[in-house]
Amino acid sequence: MYQKNIIYHSKKQEDLSLRQLLKKWLIPKKWQHFLRIQHDVLINQKYHPFNTIVKDKDEITLKFNFPPRTQQHYLPGHDPVQVAYEDNDIIVVNKAAGKKTHPNTNQEDDSLMNDVESYLKNGHPYMVHRIDMETSGLVLISKTPYLVPIFNRQLSSKKLHRQYLAVVKLNNPIAERGTIDLPIDQDPEDVRKRMVKDSGLRAVTEYNVIKKNSNYALLNLNLLTGRTHQLRVHLSYCGWPIVNDPLYNSDPKNGKLLLFAYKLVFEEPFTGNLKIIEAKLSKDMYNLICAYFKQPKSSSNPDN
Fold it and tell me: Which SUPFAM superfamilies match (predicted)?
């Protein structure tokens, strides 16, 4: 059973009933039903009807005494993990390029989730989102299955969003900033690939140019939807393929894919407090970016 004790802090002097508060916390309706009929939601250690107004500094106790929607199990991995943030409920890990986020079969043990399984020792990881194998950067992982549906709802409502850095080849001119709103579907000729196609799902990417020269640009990318290969497909379609992309850049690959998930923004479950996690560029990624823009290495880089 997963239990959470929260001291409620009223914001903007709002008067919320217990039912409204659970909805605001994005707790699924079915779970609200279980909490009510099992009397597993308490205000100051006592059960109250769902129309009870919750007061500032009331203690809310949630007992998730029912099966979660999913149970994920992974074999222990072999590699250490680089932790960017951790608390009792979640862990944010900086994934290396070339490492899969999750295994494709129960027999695999070489993915990030396998490595986090080993790191947690007495706990288990539950996947919230993923990034491509070739992409490096931040991945949010829950330590309990009961938070996964809440984070899924944050993803859908864009309360949880991700930002990336990418170095792209400028085969076409690029504006200083813009929004790419193009649907993405499976490439019928290559099962590994996706493509811009009218029959696909809507995909939206915001970008702005941090720096550029005649051949390359360093972009900040805001992922507003989470389609497979979205950034890689969108940028390639516009004539700005990511450097060292083996699927969507026709130039020979010479090193790591220059796409880095450097920022995660989400709401802390049960509080609504905004959480911003940022990762430092690894030394090799920093040096690669410097090489494309001929910027002298600076001692200000924290990993130098």
Answer: Pseudouridine synthase
Nearest to 79 by CA among 93, 63, 69, 90: 93
CA neighbor of 125 nearest in space, from 97, 145, 151, 149: 145
> Alpha carbon of 74 to those of 46, 102, 129, 150: distances in Å?
38, 9, 16, 22
Contact 113, 91 (CB under 8 A): no
How far is 238 from 105, CA to CA, in rounded Å? Answer: 35
Question: What count of other Cβ atoms lies within 10 Å of the Cβ of residue 61?
Answer: 16
Q: Could you give the C-alpha distances from 278 to 80, 138, 202, 219, 265, in angstroms and in order?
A: 19, 8, 27, 16, 9
Question: Could you give the CA distance from residue 304 to residue 288 in angstroms, rounded to a whole number?
Answer: 13
Q: Kindly name the residue from 87, 132, 185, 245 that is annotated as catalytic.
A: 132
Residue 228, SS3 per DSSP: coil
For 304, the token pair is: 């130098």
pLDDT tens digits, one per residue of 22-59? 999 999 999 999 999 999 999 999 999 999 999 999 99
Per-residue pLDDT of 137-181, as tens digits, reads 999 999 999 999 999 999 988 899 999 999 999 999 999 999 999
Q: b vs e for 68-91, b when ≥16 Cβ sit within 10 Å of the residue's Cβ?
A: beeeeebbebeeebeebbeeeebb
Task: Assess whether pLDDT exceeds 80 at residue 13.
Answer: no
Q: What is residue 285's predicted lDDT score, i.e. its pLDDT?
A: 79
Active site residue 132: yes
Residue located via tokens 């288990």: 124
Domains, the chain, ranges and CATH? 2-64 (3.10.290), 69-157 (3.30.2350.10), 158-304 (3.30.2350.10)
